[in-house]
Amino acid sequence: MRWVRTSVRLGLDEMTKPTEAQQTYAVEDAFQAEMPTKTLSLAEATTWLAIIADDEGVDYPLLLQGNLSRRTDGLAFNDEWCIAVRKKQPSELLLLHEMAHLVCANKNHGREFRTQLVRFLRRYVSLLHAARLHEMFTSAGLSVDPFTAT
Ligand SMILES: [Zn+2]
């Protein structure tokens, strides 16, 4: 009986515990509210992503805007090397989030992804933005490489 009760409780915990992706999104949302990054037109965003791609030594991603579901602000398609956004004025944070997916070997929202996102912010937005997001990931218990390494 005890075994059964325990496994039921574990099951509930798993259902109510936010996933690593949800926790990462929550930190990014709080960060965007506290230190908003600029929004860019699609033309500006395309140019900005090309500059970043040049700098990172990767192909220019194709940027598309379309009717994604309300809950999805952006998507990265690795095979097509394409970033899709829902809004016509995507934020720099959203663009860097999707760009980080393109360049990361792991396609999840794990440590490699968070480290890459912080590095992109530091390089293409500002040191202060990068330092703050790094701090927020760390306080939320989400792993990320030390800031000096980004
Ligand atoms: Zn993502």
Strand count, sense and barrel status of the largest sheet are: 3 strands, mixed
* Category by helix and strand content: mainly alpha
Task: Tell me the strand percentage band.
Answer: 5-15%
Widest sheet, order of strands: 1-3-2
Level-1 CATH class name: Alpha Beta
Reading the helices and strands in chain order gives HHHEEEHHH
Oligomer: single chain
Bound ligands: zinc ion
Question: What is the CA-based Rg, rounded?
Answer: 17 Å
Describe how the helices and strands are arranged.
Layout: H1 2-16, H2 20-34, H3 42-56, E1 62-65, E2 74-77, E3 82-85, H4 92-103, H5 111-124, H6 127-139
Parallel strand pairs: 1-3
Antiparallel strand pairs: 2-3
Helix pairs in contact: 2-6, 4-5, 5-6
Bound molecules: zinc ion.
Zinc ion (ZN) binds next to α4.
Explain this structure:
The protein has a three-stranded mixed sheet with strand order 1-3-2, covered by helices on one side. It starts with a helix and ends in an 11-residue tail after the last helix. The chain has one domain (18-149): Metalloproteases ("zincins"), catalytic domain (Zincin-like, 2-Layer Sandwich), CATH 3.30.2010.10. The protein contains six helices and three strands. With 150 residues, the chain is mostly helical. The longest helix has 15 residues, at 2-16. A hairpin with a 4-residue loop joins strand 2 and strand 3 (82-85). The structure holds zinc ion.
Question: Which terms would index this structure?
Answer:
150 residues, mainly alpha, Zincin-like, three-stranded mixed beta sheet, 56% helix, disordered N terminus, binds zinc ion
